[in-house]
Each structure stands twice: as structure tokens, then as C-alpha cells.
């Protein structure tokens, strides 16, 4: 595996893309603000069309995530007005999934379109793809101890040896590597990776973490630790 230059935390913060999230649902705004901030982005939010237009002009974000159903001015109008004076990329986020709605959003200047309910990892992948096309990216290589993950190629190594993971195992490891030493509850992992509307077996998190530990050779649970009564954490014994 070739050597990789990693940015310092200060450099990464300074270069972090700015994202404006516009949605009239408070739970969606908070969910996206928390998730995107944890991923390393600078996030601002707006709950209506007029506020979105003002913030888009003042903040000059690198990306806008824009709901269609907004008070004051709907998302399609906001998209058209922003696109008339700026080339900022826009991802439309809405509960409407009909073909005519997707066409209207894309014709209005949107770069991509995602339908609620959505999985955060899918939205995150679209955010990265749109920003990458504009030359705005987070650092794509994550490293902790002897584990290295490349977001672009979706490859993982431990101690220089390639590790083959399923897409969802990769997502779980990426979450941990992006936030080493941070404890994640099972509910947080479910919301972030399976979506906030997920209905299914809640043991899915434990199953994937168990499989991930086995593939990483972490059968003694020294790397991905269980914090009893709280959740899971990527850290070495002694807090390293």
C-alpha cells in the first residue's frame, strides 16, 4: 500500500466544505446537521425559502441540500433563483418521488435528487460525489492505529494486509474511523447507517460489528470496544 499524506486536524477543519441544509422539518434539519457535522463538514440550516435565499447569498456554501416543500417560497423556486446567480451545487431532498418532480428539480438547476425516507449513508455518498465533481472534498483516507480506509476506492487495510468488507461493514468501520474514541449507541448507528425510518431487526448492528471484528482480527475486542450500557467505540486500551 502506498504512503498517504494525511492532513492535520487544523488543516482538515480549515478546508471543510460548507453545507446549507434547508428543510421545514426540525427533526430532519437536526438529523442532517448532526450527521454532516460529525462527518467533518461545516453546516448551517434554514427552515423556509426566504431564509435559505439570504443564507445562500451570505454564506456562499459549497453545497445546498434543499427540500421542495418549504414555507415562504418552495424549493423549486429557491433552486431556480439561486441557480440564476450562482453555480453552487444543489441536492433536492423531498418526499415527492414522482418522475415529474425529479425532472422539475433537475431542470430548475439541481445537481441530484434524493427521496425521503432516505438512509444517511446514501445521502452522504451523494454529497461526496457532488462535491468531488466540484473539487471540494474531505480527506478520503482515514487511519487509526494500523487500520487504513480509503473512502474513494472503498478499500481497507490492517497492518498492510487488505481486508474485504461488505458495503455495510465498510460503512460501520468508516463511521468509527471518522470519529475514533467516540462512543456510538446502537440507536445512533442504526439512524446513521440504516436510516431514521428503519424498521427491522435491531440486532443488525451487533451482527455487523461482530462480523467486522472477525474480519479485522479483533476477536479480543481490543480495537472495537463495547462500552457496557452505552454502545461501541473505536479505541485502543489505554485510550490511544
Sum up the structure in keywords.
disordered N terminus; 240 residues; 9 helices; 20% strand; 2 domains; four-stranded antiparallel β-sheet; Arc Repressor Mutant, subunit A; alpha/beta
What does it look like?
This protein folds into two domains: 17-133, Rossmann fold, CATH 3.40.50; 141-234, Orthogonal Bundle (Arc Repressor Mutant, subunit A), CATH 1.10.10. The chain has helices spanning 9-15, 26-38, 49-59, 75-85, 99-107, 120-133, 167-178, 186-194, 204-216, and strands spanning 18-22, 42-46, 63-67, 90-94, 112-115, 141-144, 147-150, 155-158, 161-163, 183-184, 224-227, 231-234. The chain is 41% helix and 20% strand. The relative contact order is 0.10. Strands 2-1-3-4-5 form a five-stranded parallel β-sheet, with helices on both faces. A four-stranded antiparallel β-sheet has the order 6-7-8-9, with helices on one face.
CATH third-level topology of the largest domain: Rossmann fold
* Second CATH tier, the architecture of the largest domain: 3-Layer(aba) Sandwich
Looking across the biggest beta sheet, what order are the strands in? 2-1-3-4-5
Helix content: 40-55%
Number of helices: 9
Strand proportion: 15-25%
Radius of gyration, taken over Cα atoms and rounded to an integer in Å: 19 Å
C-alpha termini separation: 24 Å
Multimeric status of the protein:
single chain
Number-wise, the strands total 12
Number of domains: 2
